[in-house]
């Protein structure tokens, strides 16, 4: 079995920028990519479109939140 990488989405940075900073980026990117709860239909279907903009794939409403996460 091969060893599974733990760098996740920050693997694109290779060995650059330092481990501590890459880990901070990883935790934020994990938060921003997970599904958020919709404030209108309260389903976990909200996806981040860009900084601060979120869209629900169920009721297709678009709204603003925080830059990386949405607290409904
Ligand atoms: Zn919705």
Walk me through what this model shows.
This protein has 72 residues and is of the alpha+beta class. It has a domain at 35-72: Single Sheet (N-terminal domain of TfIIb). The chain contains 1 helix and 3 strands. It has one helix spanning 19-33; strands at 46-50, 53-56, 62-64. A 3-stranded antiparallel beta sheet has the order 1-2-3, with no helix packed on it. Strand 2 and strand 3 (62-64) form a beta hairpin. The model has no long low-confidence stretch (mean pLDDT 91). The protein binds zinc ion (ZN). Zinc ion (ZN) binds at residues 38, 40-41, 43, 45, 56, 58-59, 61.
The largest sheet, given as strand count, sense and whether it forms a barrel, is: 3 strands, antiparallel
Spatial separation of the terminal alpha carbons: 41 Å
Class by alpha and beta content: alpha+beta
CATH class identity of the domain at 35-72: Mainly Beta
Which segments are poorly predicted (pLDDT under 50) over 5 or more consecutive residues? none
Q: Number of helical runs?
A: 1
What name does CATH use for the topology of the domain at 35-72? N-terminal domain of TfIIb
Ligands present: zinc ion
């Amino acid at each position: 079995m091969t060893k599974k990488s733990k760098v996740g989405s920050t693997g694109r940075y290779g060995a650059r920028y330092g481990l501590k900073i890459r880990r901070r980026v990883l935790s934020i990117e994990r938060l921003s990519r997970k599904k958020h709860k919709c404030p209108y239909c309260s389903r976990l279907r909200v996806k981040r479109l860009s900084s601060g903009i979120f869209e629900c794939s169920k009721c297709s409403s678009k709204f603003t939140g925080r830059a990386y996460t949405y607290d409904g």
